[in-house]
What does this fold into?
Amino acid sequence: MLSDTYRKIAADGIWHNNIVFGQNLALCPLLAVTGTATNGLGMGLATLVVIIASNGLISLVRNLIPGEIRIPIFVLLIAALVTLVDILMNAWAHELYKVLGLFIALIVTNCALLGRAEAFASKQPVKEALWDGLMMGLGFLLVLVALGAAREISSTGTLFANASLLLGESFRFLEVTVIPDYKGFLLMALPPGGFIMVAFLIVGKRLIDQRLAQTQNQVHSQEPDLSLEATQ
It folds into this structure.
């Protein structure tokens, strides 16, 4: 069973303080690479690996870093990890690497990574920092895949197209034709379509939050006042 601390970190990373929905960060790669769910999955996995590794590494050496130069050191550590991921993707997932291109290297400019390093990893033990990186990265990955899937289905009628070519034959099972003989909707494949779909996702999340809050308020209003009963 997870402790309350780990559950709170998970809820923040995946939902309440999500990199996109809660912090409104990383919108450049979000809109640039999510033309398909496959691209979103690849970018999300790369970012997930970097944020877990950077959180863990920074937490591990946090007591050795002088406070006056901590930000430049954080950036250097993140840049080194991004470079390593960039090289590994070029070697082992070259087709996906060609599609994502410059945006792999630009993970280093993702403010969310530096933000988690400064706000959390530099102040917490390694296990908590790793868990925070996992949840933040997973939350970002889910948004990338959801946005890529929505744009891909609405633009071409497929889902995870070319997954086997970009990620390997083991991912061929993901390739699905959702709408047969679909004529396509070009706007959703272009950057304006990305903005429109992000807006729909943000609105959807807020509606869900409002609904959950209303449900919680109704439950609390129906609970008996035990303190009043005790005085009587």
About this structure: The CA atoms of residues 69 and 213 lie 42 Å apart. Residues 4-219 form one domain.
